[in-house]
Amino acid sequence: xxxxxxxxxxxxxxxxxxxxxxxxxxxxxxxxxxxxxxxxxxxxxxxxxxxxxxxxxxxxxxxxxxxxxxxxxxxxxxxxxxxxxxxxxxxxxxxxxxxxxxxxxxxxxxxxxxxxxxxxxxxxxxxxxxxxxxxxxxxxxxxxxxxxxxxxxxxxxxxxxxxxxxxxxxxxxxxxxxxxxxxxxxxxxxxxxxxxxxxxx
Length: 201
Fold this sequence. Notes:
- There is one protein chain.
- By secondary structure, this protein is an all-alpha fold.
- Among the domains are: 11-74; 79-153, no CATH class.
- The protein has five helices and no strands.
- Helix 1 (3-43) runs antiparallel to helix 2 (50-74) and helix 3 packs antiparallel against helix 4.
- The chain starts with a helix and ends in a 31-residue tail after the last helix.
């Protein structure tokens, strides 16, 4: 397969993956919203710091939902065999882009640009920060967590292993031929010399 063919296939997968990624993200957002309100208003209603606990629980469940959706749907053709490592990478990217980037945007608008107020904070965190976070998240999912290079390397290694196994099985058994051992000479040379009798007989 040529490099041009591989690049064309990746480009053709880009738009469907982006659409599926957006759909999974929308489901995750809904899950986050529902879980947060259920925990805050029902389960943890009388618990101190219920808002913090509800946010943590809702975020973790939403990230888990997004991971399942991306692993088995959006990036299903590129998922890793090592699900544990993939999950850790996915959670790290989700936390960094979903929390870190909005915080940076709020800090810039609030402290550097002097845009103080609820409207400015909401725009910087939930509009600008969310949009930039989604772009970074999709890029990191596509080219790191669910990297096509990993999937192609896995397929190439499996193919090489199959070829090696078939080659080994097809090789004929090698017969080792050993040279015969030379006969061992025993006794005296005089004993094998014929007796010519007495001189003059």
